[in-house]
Amino acid sequence: MSPKQVVAAADPYFPNNGDHRFHAHRYELTLDYRPGPNRLAGTARINAIAGVGAPLREFALDLADFRIGRVLVDGRAAHYTHRAGKLRIKPAKAPAAGAAFTVDVHWSGNPKPVRSPWGGLGWEELTDGALVASQPVGAPSWYPCNDRPSDKASYQISVTTPSAYSVVTGGRLLTRTTRASATTWVYDQPAPTASYLVGLSIGVYRPVPLTEPHGGGVPQTGYVPARLQPQFEHDFARQPQMMALFEELFGPYPFAEYTVVVADEELDVPVEAQGLATFGTNHVDGARRFERLVAHELAHQWFGNSVTISGWQHIWLNEGLAKYAEWLWSERSGGPSAHHKAEAAYRQVTAFPQDLRIGDPGRRLLFDDRVYERGGLTVHALRVALGDEAFFRMLRGWATLNRHSVVTTADFVAHVARSTDRPVGDLLTAWLDRPELPPFPVRTPPPPPAAPLRAAPATRFWLRRPSGS
Ligand SMILES: [Zn+2]
Q1: 14 and 131 share a domain?
Q2: How far is the CA of 321 from the centre of ligand 1 (A)?
Q3: What's the EC number here (predicted)?
């Protein structure tokens, strides 16, 4: 646990989520899911560490409205209450300050999304299957967790479901075992993962490899409704090139594999999860009309998933950088330049009211378009101010120095300041902390060609030539 995690206060936007009195570092989830009746039964083994200071007499997990079978701490039955999404636990013997301990929870019921201003979050039952899209606070809709983005943990997830369905989650598929009519899929994600980024899809999908089995780079695979395979193969054909570009610009891909699911349902927007992204059928048209979203979701593997915000007020760090990655992909793949994309975004943002500070947009406007577009513009303004060489060094440094870590906007501002001799504090304050839109970043014109020397008669030059040379 980093000191940052110990001292962090409750999330200002979601103070009821997460518990800072302990750190969960590994979840082992064993789930049984029946798609027809939408019935989920699970057991969780959570490996955790008590905070420093005092014995952990009480702590809480976030978990929606399920029937609780039992709760054990270090193998002993614990006293608990469960209401309003909080499973409050009093261990029979309090773990000592800083000590490792385990929690086991058994739960079952009919999972349903957590209601929010942005619609349902978390577990979503589909016409034939289910998916999970938790950002920002939907994770407790399906498993008990310390639901704050700064509390990253490794995961092993085992899901048993009827054999006709595929189970896809971030991480490596360890085993797939069929008994009678049910199949158990076991995945492992060793990289630190925020609870909102634990993704899951259950559906009738066909695996489509996007990379050669033994080619370079991490394996990339799609899970797609069979009827959409031809369109998918066209629309995602350039994802391996995108991966290569982003590795060049942002540093090595942070995880061991990358999987995309096209859920058999229309979705408002694609959603990122650790090592995984989920698209809707409406994002696949066989004409690459949504390729910018393919780039956006892939970029989140660096910005959001590996480098994770410690609290939701820093959301622009995820969305501004993923937006800018869209523009970089455009620029580097033969489309309009990032500058051109920024000009279009600026026109778009100009039409909105200038009453949002994207560095702390408030809970209600967390996913406002301005966070994305003005976020991308902020990154572009930095590029213009720093120049390409320093800008790309700064960007790659941000992703690599903070790999698998937790960050704030203040960390970013400090990182930028360390990356350049130019004063950029006022520029970042104007873009992030003030509502009014700063002027569009003007590229310093390249230094004019050296003024032509006053035309002198050639003869004069020759006359002045030192003798002997
Ligand atoms: Zn995004």
Answers
A1: yes
A2: 9
A3: 3.4.11.2
Query: How far is the centre of ligand 1, averaged over its atoms, from the C-alpha of 447 (Å)?
Result: 37
pLDDT at 8: 56
| Ligand 1 centroid, distance to 370 Cα (angstroms) | 12
Model confidence over 100-157: pLDDT tens digits? 999 999 999 999 999 988 889 999 999 999 999 999 999 999 999 999 999 999 999 9
The tokens describing 45, both together, are 């083994």
CA of 329 to the centre of ligand 1 (A): 15
The Cα-based distances of 150 to 142, 274, 314 in angstroms read 19, 14, 12
How far is ligand 1, taken at its centre, from the CA of residue 185, in Å? 28
**What is the predicted pLDDT for the residue at 451?**
56
Span 405-424, mean pLDDT?
A: 97
Indicate whether 464 pLDDT > 50.
Answer: no
Centre a 10 Å sphere on the Cβ of residue 47 and count the other Cβ atoms it contains.
Answer: 16
Q: Is residue 65 domain-resident?
A: yes
Q: Is 366 part of a structural domain of the chain?
A: yes
CA 462 to ligand 1 center in whole angstroms: 65
Say whether both 236 and 332 belong to one domain. no
Ligand 1 centroid to residue 468 C-alpha, Å = 69
- Has residue 300 got a pLDDT over 80? yes
Number of domains in the chain: 3
Q: Looking at the domain assignment, is residue 346 inside a domain?
A: yes
Residues of the domain holding 95: 1-196
| CA 283 / ligand 1 centre spacing (Å) | 15
In a domain, 259, yes or no: yes
Give the C-alpha separation, 462 to 429, whole Å.
Answer: 57
Question: What's the rounded mean pLDDT across residues 232-253?
Answer: 98
Between the CA of 309 and the centroid of ligand 1 the distance, in Å, is: 13
User: Do residues 143 and 261 both lie within one domain?
Assistant: no
**Ligand 1 center–CA 315 separation, angstroms:** 9
Q: What is the percentage of the chain residues whose pLDDT exceeds 70?
A: 93
Question: Which residues have CB atoms below 5 A from the ion given as ligand 1?
Answer: 319, 322
CATH number at residue 395: 1.10.390.10
* CA of residue 444 to ligand 1 center, whole Å: 30
Confidence of residue 2 (pLDDT cuts 50, 70, 90): very low
How far is residue 283's CA from residue 391's CA, in Å, rounded to a whole number? 32
- 151 shares its domain with 22: yes
Output the furthest CA–CA distance in the chain (Å, rounded): 102
Residue with tokens 């520029």: 427
Tokens of 463: 């006359």
Q: Is residue 109 located within the same domain as residue 209? A: no
d(CA 296, ligand 1 centre) in Å: 6
Given this model, what pLDDT does residue 448 score? 60
Q: How far apart are CA 280 and CA 267, in angstroms?
A: 5
Distance 308 CA to ligand 1 centre (A): 13
pLDDT by residue (tens digit) across 261-289? 999 999 999 999 999 999 999 999 999 99
